[in-house]
Target: HEAT repeat-containing protein 1
Amino acid sequence: MPHGRIAVERFRDVDLVPLESVLQTCAFCNSSRNGSTDTDNMAPCKPHFHFQNGDCSKCGIFSAWSDGKTDVCYVLPPKKMELITLLIGAAVVVTLTFIALQILHAPLIIVDAKSHVADSTQAESKKIFMLSVQGPIVDLHKGMSRLVHRWVRYRARGTGLIWLDYEQKKSNAVKVQNTGDRKLLLKDMNPPFDCASCKGSLHAADFLKLLSLLAACISVTAMLPAIIKVAVISGNGVGHVFVTAIFVTLPLVAAAALLHFPVAWLIQWLYRRTPFSRALDEYRKQITCKEDTGPDAAHPRNQGLQVLILHGLWKHFESFILDRNMHFVVANIVRPLTRSKQVSFVTLWGGRQLDYFVSHCWGANFSHFVRSIQCHALSKEGPTSWFDAAYWICSFANNQWNIGAELGNDPMGSAFAHALTSGIKGVAMVLDEEVQPLTRVWCLFEFFLSTRERLELVFVTNAGVVGDDRCSSFDIALEVGKKIKSLQVKSLAEDLRPRILERCHDIDASVSAAALRCACDLAKAEVLKEEDYDRITDLVWDPEALRRDAACVFVSRFILQEDIFDQPNGTADGSAAKRHLQMLLDFLVEFVKPHFELTERLVAALWRKASCLEDWDAMTSLLLGDGELAADQHLAIAFLAEATVRVAFDDWLANNTMEAEALLQRAARALCPRLPTLLSTFQSEKAAMLRTASLCNYLLRFCAQSPPGPTGGLLAGSAGEPVARALRSLFLRQTDLEALEHLALAWAHLLELCSGARPVLHDLVKSLYDTFLQLAPLVGKPSQGLLGCMVPMPDTLLATAQRLRILAKAYDVSLCDVEGFVSTALSVVDERVQTGTVEPELTVTLLELLALISVRHAGQLMQPPLPAVAADVRDERQLQQASTAAEDLLELATGFLTKDEDHRLKSAAFGVALCTLSAWWNAAHFGKTEEVKPWFCQLPDALQDALANHLGKLLAEANQVPTESVLVSGMPEPGDLLKSSAFSHLFVLLQKGVASTESVPSDAERIKTARLCCLMVATCRHAQVAAGSLPSVVLSQARSRREDLQQVAWTLLRRLRKEAHVGPTQAEDFFTTLLAAVKFLHKDQGTAIAKDLSFRLLQHVGVGKLTPPLQKALLNTLRRGVVNAAAGSAAGFLEALTPWITKHVVEDILIDNLASWAKEQSNQALQEAGLEKLLEACENTVKKLDPESPEKPSKRRRITKGGNRKTPTSTQEIKDAMELP
Model:
């Protein structure tokens, strides 16, 4: 074997020692055994022994190495290979442990943290605390990150939240749980009140146990094999080598210890920056005023903050403050900004003399607070100078680093009292919806003091000032009334909210859409909880269009920063379109990652509603990386662009809409000249490359199929050659088969647009062709000059065959090389049949390739000459041998079906056999010419039996799958040229199966394989197949308990029934096939089962009376059934045919005629076959149709060919109509 030979070459010069010799070292040397004491005549000791006191002794465990020729033992092995092996193992252990240490030691920087209500449906639900963090631990794979969180507790530091920050006395380390991408949930501690933070960090507290476990696992997997290897090679004991490995590891551990602190500092420095910290740094740069250092600068009367500065603070941090209150602003903004100087916020900007005092509650919304102050300033100072008014606001005027001094020992000595008594213009009390200031002690004190000082005190809201001339009391009263009304509406909405959210997921899509529209009103009234938004957002990916469209409207209005539904009322400009696309990418990354394939459903909901999908300049800019996109966003834009083009193309192809055509034209103009750049941009990302290849395919297909215009000339001439070269390069490098399929189809369309692409394609086919012919003969044989191993690079052979197979679907790769290419491929497949040495994946690939080639041969040989596809020259001599190749392929299929144990290979052989038979039969009968003599493959009996046996086994296994576990829907309809055939679907399924590690097919794979094989039988018109048992096996599935298997029987029945109307011969064939199916099931499972099948089949034949030709064919088939039953050995068979009579599809006179004829044929065999039952059915049917009188005409009427309504009443009229004798 190859591995054995390589081992011999590697250790040719090394003395190998058996493992038992390593584990059981001897105690004496050879000379000691011989009893010699003459040191001069003694032979050298064994390796790792040394001569001592006239004897050979084993080296000690701490100095374990010796060559046996001296009396000295060494600490380290003298041979370089042994030392290097131990060094490599030690380096791996130390490096991986060091990395684990750095990851666990590095803090998790808090990006955002806030409290939530655990269960919004309960009035007194506990609060939970969610954190968004960044750090090495959360950047690990999701499973590893969860493992760390399960083992480790964290200490929070610097969050500004007293209940959360770690204290040694409290020992309040916390546990966390992963809830999303870089999002954590606090597990064993609940916040006592609503709170939030954008600063601080989490530090792993007890990670040494986890680190020790990881180090042990790493040592076992990395160091132990190295120790055993050195012990085997050197012959030294494992324990001795183990101690030596420790000595080798110690210097590396010391080096790692020295590197720990700089590396830890570097990691913390890399992760220290958050969006909020950057915003703080940017705001610090805006503080340009000099501090007032006068004697009264710190007095409260000089701590006034301008409205302009307050407004600027709010706008700068608006995206972080959101709906949070003053507690958040002070802890996260004011204190960090003033930490270095330990002064008040106003002091940083230089305080102004007070104009007004503000009384407020810190629990109110900060944005509401700022707007209220603006309204007050505008009311009191006018529109020209309102922004210059100075206000005393405790959170900004007080030094938050010395609150004790600001409050003083007495309220009257506090900074609040000094400000109120400093001669200000008035007091503004900011009221929120809950009127919280009137419930706070300090606000009541301020109210009392301002009244005592006779200061003007006004109530302020974000709607205006009560009593202001510009905002009359009527306006304020109306605003208060609205708020009261909204509170009442909210109370009612709170009761309805659970029921509306439940109806959003109703099984009826129309009900769900109506509920989603109600949810929009709830969101507008601010009634929905945060977790409710996630439940509604999940419906964007629902397969039902109504539900999906309504959910997408909700997302656009309440999840995204801007409403992107801007059509048909308007169209976004370039910057707005790019901004909207960025929002869509963020939404996809947050809610759908990693299942980006669901992007198509989002695009379908946005189609012709969001103009950003039509701006392909913006889309192209993002695709080509002109913007700064993260890796996930870059992947998402590939899915978004491909889904948009695919949805537009399907709309254009089905409805020929102008909007779809305009979008595709813009996409083609933007992307076609840049296709090489686009393909190279995504070539390293597998998922993105698949979508890019699909995008390229649809664009080129549109350019090739669209009416003559500007898009057709985008790639004409030399403009298309770079695209051809890019496609060639990618086709050779890509490993994803689905992406290769798209690239091959893209090339097919490019050939119609650019003549210069043909030589590039021909060169690609030629290189693959030569590689296959070079490697294929080496299968199962030693190759020369490649280290004497077996087939060199088997993956190369498989990859070459796969690419040829994919190209063969669109182009001809060996049209005129039957003797060379086809015979070589056949020999490789035959090697699998004879010896089983060829891998299943390669075998399935070659079988599909040979079937595709055989189909092309049949078409080229039997049909009129077709235009060359890939510059192949038609060779008549080679084509004359195509029939022999087809027969050889059928012989190989027989071998697979009878000898091979792999069920997937048997199914592949089944598909190849039916495909080959169908192709040659169709070519001979539907494409024959006068110059060419028709020829088609014969179906040997052995192959027919093998096909029937395999199909029977497939159906038996599929019927054993419980109906409630798997239900397969959708299948290719025979004759649909716009969709893939059953043959193509079958081999896609088989390719996935043989490429997987699962040797046993899943239940879904069993059902799909059985259905597709039955569909291939349903589409095969080969005379021997139609006359054999395969159609009977398929039609027997009409009795299957599985609905998905019943469908294949009805598919075959529809095709046969349609052909039965062509002529009398086809009608006879139709009922003959039905009779064979009943006979097949009667022989296998008895009369009752066969009778039930007859009933089911006749139900699908037609409703009411059949046409005269079909009635004639049915009666003739029944006569043949009676004749066959008369031959004997068919007990109960005629009883199984009684539904053919009782279904009332034949005129009663003819039924009576049949009964008379059958009576004349009566014998013992017919009696056993159930003739009496058949005659009884005839009699009952006639009486039931016309119970009053045989001469009375039936009320049912037929429409004759001439259009006159006439019912034949006499026997002769019916015989004439049906041309019966």
Remarks:
- The mean pLDDT is 79.
- The chain is about 60% helix and 5% strand.
